[in-house]
Amino acid sequence: MGETVRTARPSGTPSGTIWLVAASLYFLFAASTIHLTSDGRTIATVWPANAVLVALLLLDRRPRWWTVLSAGLVGNVAANWLTRGSIAGPLLYAAANGLEVVVATILIRRGSGSIDLLRSTGALLRFILAAGLIAPALSGAAGAATATLVYDQAFVSSFKTWFLSDGLGLLVFTPVFMAILGGQLTDCIRSKSPMQRLESLAYLGLVVATAYLVFYVAVLPALFLLYAPVMLVTFRVGPLGTKMAVMAIAVIGACATASGHGPVVMTTGDPVLQAHLFQSFLAIMLITCLPVAAEIAARTRLSRKLEEQAAEAHAEAITDTLTGLLNRRGFERRAGALLDRAASPLCCVAIDIDHFKGINDSWGHPFGDHVLRHLAATLRANTRPDDLIGRLGGDEFVMILQVGDHDTGEAICTRIQAALRQQPIAADAATHVLLSISCGIASITPPDRLRDVIARADDALYRAKAGGRNGFRSAG
């Protein structure tokens, strides 16, 4: 799986649709999180709801602040009112969460033309600083004050829980929601073969199975067992797989800890300390795994860039820069390979432009270059994609046609000459040049060598030129 990148997909989505998606997802995640990881008065252990809003704002080229934040407000108040049974607390919690979303989004977007949370170690550190420290610290002060004033909870303990809960929620879930809502997850799945999809699913399934065993089955604390499958996913599936794996562990672990299961519960009976220990574990896992995923993403991107540069360099080495055809080196390499594997006869055509020196002398080399490009385009237009066309130098062109008889080769040469007669080239406002070529045709029968074939075609070409030009001859 690839890495999370900014995409323009949400920009074309109607604001009403974005509002409905944001409000619905926020309510779903907020209500389920409070229900599963809180007693209705305490702060939830992990808070993924804000990550939905941050992801939507990051994905839009022009963030629709009012649309997304108002949707979050409605979803937040509805979820808190449903699970906590009051309105004063939910409104204050919604305000604190809105502050967190705004601060995190602004800091992550600051100075970045594109949003790629795991683009590099530097991008990851900025993401951790914004979403894992600054934004949850600011909102945590407001949230803890609300917990103290409305629900009579200890300020320091509430601040710690909020800070870790919201920070981890943003760090764990924002990349995943960006991948899902931005369409990257779908694109990644489509780009894989069925076997690769099955392999990725198997590795993620291993993470889920290990997390279930650690949190629900094991009779001794064994959190360390989770690192092996997560790192396996990181290396075999990629950064997106790491995000999915950590998210799965966060969900399974939070539900298990809140319901009295798992290694954290074995360590202490204090619910507040359990929450802090589980949050600390998730934080350590993120700090351990995400930098590795970021480095793998950077190296993968670098490797892909180097491969593209190597391909470009190879193409430039075998391509004639003026006409875009194969140069001598490229033609000899491709034609040699074609002859080596040819199982049936082929045809070689050597081509010269008639009176090309006179054209250059009369209208200059820039016009001569234009003539060469015009001929190259005509040759491409009148041959098949599998045929090879090369410019060996000057006005010398050669073709390997995948036809096995002189008659077909001669018909192709006739077609090319007719096309040139129908397309005179403007030399200046008052003069048009009618281009003509001479051709020499030689058949190729395996195991003929390329050098010998071109020599026979050249001999036929010289005879065509000696016979008056603007025609063709076939090798005997």
- Low-confidence segments: 1-8
Determine the mean pLDDT.
Answer: 85
How many individual helices?
A: 17
Note the gap between the termini. Answer: 59 Å
Placed side by side, the strands forming the largest sheet appear as 2-3-1-6-7
Per DSSP E runs of 2 or more residues, the count of β-strands stands at 7
Choose one word for the global shape: elongated
Helix amount: 55-70%
What is the radius of gyration? 34 Å
What's the structural blueprint in terms of helices and strands?
Layout: H1 15-37, H2 49-59, H3 65-84, H4 88-109, H5 121-151, H6 155-181, H7 184-191, H8 194-217, H9 227-236, H10 239-258, H11 263-267, H12 271-317, H13 328-341, E1 346-353, H14 356-363, H15 365-381, E2 388-393, E3 396-401, H16 406-421, E4 425-426, E5 432-433, E6 437-444, H17 450-466, E7 472-474
Parallel strand pairs: 6-7
Antiparallel strand pairs: 1-3, 1-6, 2-3, 4-5
Helix pairs in contact: 1-2, 1-3, 2-3, 2-4, 2-6, 3-4, 4-5, 5-6, 6-10, 6-12, 8-9, 8-10, 9-10, 9-12, 10-12, 14-15
Tell me what the structure shows.
The chain has 476 residues and is α+β, with helices and mostly antiparallel strands. Helix content is 67%, strand content 7%. It is built from 17 helices and seven strands. Strands 2-3-1-6-7 form a five-stranded mixed sheet, sandwiched between helices. A two-stranded antiparallel ribbon has the order 4-5. Helix 1 runs parallel beside helix 3 and helix 8 (194-217) runs antiparallel to helix 9 (227-236). The radius of gyration is 34 Å and the shape is elongated. Mean pLDDT is 85; it is low at 1-8.
